[in-house]
Amino acid sequence: MTEIHSETAPKALIRKMKLLKWLLIVSVVVIAVGISYALISSRPNITSQQRVARIESEVKCPSCDGVSALVSNTAGAFAVRSFVEKQVKAGVSDSQILNALEASYGPSILMSPPAAYGGTVMAVLPFAFLAVVVGLTVFFGFRRWRNSAGDFAWNGQQSVLESSIGDDAVAGTGVGGTEGSLDETPQDDLTRQKSLGPVRRKWLLYMGALLVLAGIGSALWIIRNHDNNQKQLAATAVQAQNEAQTILKARVLANQGQDVQALQLLSSVLEVDPNQPVALTYQGWLLTQAGEKDNNSALINQGQQFLEKAVKLDPGYPDARVFLGYVLFQDRHDANGAVSQFHAFLADKPSQSFIDATKSVIISAYKQAGQPIPLQLN
Amino acid sequence: MNAVLGQTGVLIGFVGAVFTISILGYGLLKHKAGVIRHARNYSFVVLAGAILATFAMERGLLTHDFSLAYVASNNSRETPLLFTITGMWSALQGSILLWGLVLSLYLGGLVIRTRRRPTDELPAWALLITNVVAAFFFALMLGPANPFVRISGAVPADGIGPNPLLQDHPLVAIHPPFLYLGFVGFTIPFAFALASLITNRLDEDWVTETRRWSLLAWGFLTVGIILGAWWSYQVLGWGGYWAWDPVENAALLPWLAGTAYLHSSIAQQRRGIMRVWNISLIVSAFSLTILGTFFTRSGILQSVHSFSDSTLGPFLLVFFFAVVAISLALIAWRGDGLRSSRVIAPAISRESAFFLNNVLFVLFAFVVLLGTTFPLLLQAINGAQVTVGAPYFDSFIGPIGIAILFFMGTAPLLPWQRTNRSLVQRRLVWPAVAAAVAVVVEIVEGVHSPSLIFAYPMAVFAASAALRQAAVHTMYSRKHKTGMLRYLFSRTNGGMLVHMAVAIIALALVSSTSYGQRTSLILKPGQSSSFDGHKFTYHGVQTVVTPAKTSLEALISVDGSASYTPEVSQFGNNSEVIGTPSVKPGLIDDVYLTLDLPPKTASGSATFGVVIQPLVSWIWIAGALMAVGAAIAAFGTKDISPLEYVEEELALKREEPEPEIPVAP
Amino acid sequence: MTDQLQEQTRSPKTGPRKTVRIIAVVMGVFLVGLAVLLATRKPVSMQTVASPLINKTAPAISGTSLDGKRVSLASYAGRFVLVNFFASWCTPCQDEEKALAQFSNSSPDVSVLGVVFDDVNSSAAGFLRRYGANYQAVSDPNGQIALSYGVSQPPQSYLIAPNGVILTEIVGPVSLASLNQLVGIARSRGF
């Protein structure tokens, strides 16, 4: 880098500069030609071993978090590897292999989401983001550049001088590097501040205050709904939320006729919390229904026990009441017992649609028991 | 005793913070200089509280005080001393305590740093905001993350001990503290940014003031992340160091925002531009540290770091929301004043290179954030569970990284404001030649993968550009007849050292992932086998029992050298079996050994996993270089460098001879 | 000159002065969305996603049993089969094994078919013997059966109807009562 010191010999410098220029041009050409050559000649047909590795790197090791089957040492990863090798040998295509794994594990076995699960969106979003940033820059940039065209003329004159005073790449804390050139900013701020009308400022303040209040409010709400000191209680709160979701899922499944799945979900809830009235109720209901269909008194008995337990645990839960009443009336032919359950059910103010769905059975129970039919049912 | 002591410490910290906030806030709102001067020092109360609580925690750990629930579940009598001490950050509550301690240390540092301007409202507001953050973390320790909860019932005779993964490697002692120093460190520049908005001092002061703080935080975070990668390489046993795990991403996100900020803030210091951008970046960096902590602690993401699902999630989320909402409101409020009167000219200049590089960093962060949160989004939409792993990230981060390397090489070569053709030409020549040589070597070596074809020359280009700048800069001392060291350790060179280190990391990353080889070896005692130029001989197994763990070690020699001992261990009463790899590090390649299937009998055959990856060690070496570079950039000699001046002077003489040019200071 | 500059750089009323505010508002909306999304997620440890195999024909199983016979799932046609993936080293498997042994003896049209998951055959056989389980267990040397059922961690079980359709997947240990209920309800649905 001796050229710095050779200012005394401008001619030699110019010659050197020319040489450097040519060197630069040659390097850029070499880089461009080299890269395009390599890209063009890149071998499209990879060996089957490379193919196996590529597929394996696309598959998650079944028992790991985010580590591919290619690199993991777990039993599941070995299984995936031997599967992929066998399939590749058998001439199965990449996508068929991946689909086969997805069919047994679901999409989470793949290291990146498949197209049907948002894979396309994920591939497009970064480009969209870049487009938005570039678009905004160009749009606002042009507006500002147009507005401040004169700025450049002024800066142009100063540029050499200014950068000659300042330092190189990283300006230190003390340097600032703003000598004189930024004098206009404070004034600028002042004039601008004036232009912000008091009315708008007031509104902004209101909005800010509202935001802060909303934040504090939600914080307080969350903290209130959250037991502070005893982790256990908080844990049960989370668990309860989880239970509610599982039970809901089970009910949806039951409606779709997937009773076995539903029952399994409910059992899993009851395993953790054997006194969950909603789970008990629906468990009982599913079992008695199954028992009725199949003439299996054992199932009906079990179901009735679940329903009775649910009623005992939560006497105000209408679903448990109506199901128990239904069982008592239809399976045990105990009209009086059923009526007392239906009575409690109606007293709990169930939804109209629920009443409509169960009306006919309830009315016949009341009739059989010789009791007046409640007004709600008409 | 320890519980009382610790609880008192936490309480002192919290009350101290609240007290500082109220008094300082009063002084600031009423503009009472005396009150401000006075109230600043209350921050030391917070520090005292944090130190007391930390002392109580460490005392509890060291004396195995199992009456503390935290100690009982993260320590046992068999735990070695080192992991007893590190027990403080083995689980959630202690980590929050560490957070509180680090933040209080920063608080104290801030008071001391700004002691000469005790009535200046900018640092006073920054102090207030930092105290608010501190109050939040101390409040967490009073409520949901109390580290000093006493165990209910009888005091157990022995504790459970830390998670096996956390007592397997001494890096656990330093990785989390560095990460926290980095995470927490972003609080200070963030606080100054907000303070500048509140006080309407929107000029370059806050940027200048926080340059060192940000470099410090960034340097710590860099070290923390690299140590984390090293830890997972040494412990997790799959041969890699980065899995795009949600928690790794959580640390990377603020790092990306911080890196972008460190560059664009130079543009603001020098040219008064990119003001909104800088405030937004530093707000992002800070809020992403909170979001990252939320990811780690709420357990909503599947991660190797799910050491502690906790109930802290909602609190952190509310805090994150509040931080971003308040910052956005302040930015919107001061929006007008923030606009610089200057713009980035549509020309090839350093500021436009900074801007483009910044866009790339933001895009990088966007991809990482998208990849991390997408499974949650999809789950909310249709309940499906998907994995977003390396293939997705690699396909985007590869090209982005190459583009970043390109700008990393060119930006330091470009002058501010507009291009000076001959100058740039001259600076560009040698890096371009180096890149050309790299391309030629690649072609000769038969490199074909598209990503490699670009990655190697770009890394070489960036490294040589940085080297060239640093060298010229240092050589220039000769002309000035001053000591070379003064120039060698200038802030500019610190930055250039970081650039070189990043280029080295890029080279090492690309090489190790593209040219890594892996296999399984099944060997009987005494048998040897060769793979990828290395010879492995299996000698047998031995059982090693220490109070903390029982391990089955396999003795295996690599290339006839000393024995390496991949092992499987079982810790204390934890039934989980943890495999520990053994690594033979080397400057050219690392040999990574795992015991995948232990032998049934002493003479039976064992299955070993072997991973051979080139240049991995250079990631750790370059990590250390980055730390050194960041330290020089923060604390090095001031740049009085007339480098630009000299070079431009030469260029000017050629183009348009001018009679008078001011002499460099 | 400075005055002139300011003239020029002063933006008109409709100019970019609003930009910051607009962008801030857009970011705010994005933030609220993100916060809501994150706030409504529950921990991973509590998430369950149903196996995609449910209501589909069960993947074929054939192999050598632990006592050396040929076993295949097809030979169980016409009966309820609980395919149970287990290993002797897995603690929850020890918890459920007694229930499985009883369940397999409870009814003539109900069978259990064990599949060894990442275990040595002799240990697996010893494990079954210890709990008095006398049902067949098939060894799965390369984990291919487990792979076709989408098993990640033992114990994992699948209840297969007499017509060969998978009725449900049970992740984690089973209990006798719930198995009987499951079979009962499946019968009532005409399986």
Kindly describe this structure.
The complex is a heterotrimer of chains A (378), B (665) and C (191). With 378 residues, chain A is mainly α. Chain A is 72% helix and 0% strand. In chain A, helix 9 runs antiparallel to helix 10 and helix 14 packs antiparallel against helix 15. With 665 residues, chain B is α+β, with helices and mostly antiparallel strands. Chain B is globular. Chain B is 62% helix and 10% strand. The C terminus of chain B is likely disordered. Chain B starts with a helix and ends in a 10-residue tail after the last helix. Chain C is an alpha/beta fold. Helix content of chain C is 39%, strand content 18%. In chain C, the strands form 2 sheets. Chain C has a 5-stranded mixed beta sheet with strand order 5-4-3-6-7. In chain C, strands 1-2 form a two-stranded antiparallel ribbon. In chain C, strand 3, helix 3 and strand 4 form a beta-alpha-beta unit. The longest helix of chain C is centred in the N-terminal third of the chain and has 21 residues. Chain C is elongated. Chains B and C meet through helix 12, helix 13, helix 14 and helix 15 of B and helix 1 and helix 2 of C.
Furnish the topology, listing elements before pairings.
The complex is a heterotrimer of chains A (378), B (665) and C (191).
Chain A lengths: L9 H32 L6 H10 L17 H15 L4 H12 L13 H29 L1 H17 L18 H12 L2 H27 L6 H25 L3 H14 L4 H18 L2 H17 L4 H13 L4 H13 L4 H18 L9
Helix pairs in contact in A: 2-3, 9-10, 10-11, 11-12, 11-13, 12-13, 13-14, 13-15, 14-15
Chain B lengths: L1 H28 L3 H7 L3 H20 L6 H6 L6 H5 L6 H22 L7 H22 L32 H11 L1 H13 L5 H31 L10 H26 L3 H24 L14 H21 L1 H4 L11 H33 L7 H21 L10 H25 L4 H31 L3 H5 L2 H24 L2 E7 L4 E4 L2 E12 L3 E10 L4 E2 L2 E5 L5 E4 L1 E3 L4 E9 L8 E9 L1 H20 L7 H13 L10
Antiparallel strand pairs in B: 1-10, 2-3, 3-4, 4-5, 4-6, 6-7, 8-9, 9-10
Helix pairs in contact in B: 1-2, 1-3, 1-7, 3-6, 6-7, 6-8, 7-9, 8-10, 9-10, 9-12, 10-11, 10-21, 11-12, 11-15, 12-13, 15-16, 16-18, 17-18, 18-20, 20-21
Chain C lengths: L1 H8 L9 H21 L22 E3 L5 E3 L7 E7 L4 H16 L3 E7 L4 H10 L5 E3 L5 H6 L6 E5 L5 E6 L4 H13 L3
Parallel strand pairs in C: 3-4, 4-5
Antiparallel strand pairs in C: 1-2, 3-6, 6-7
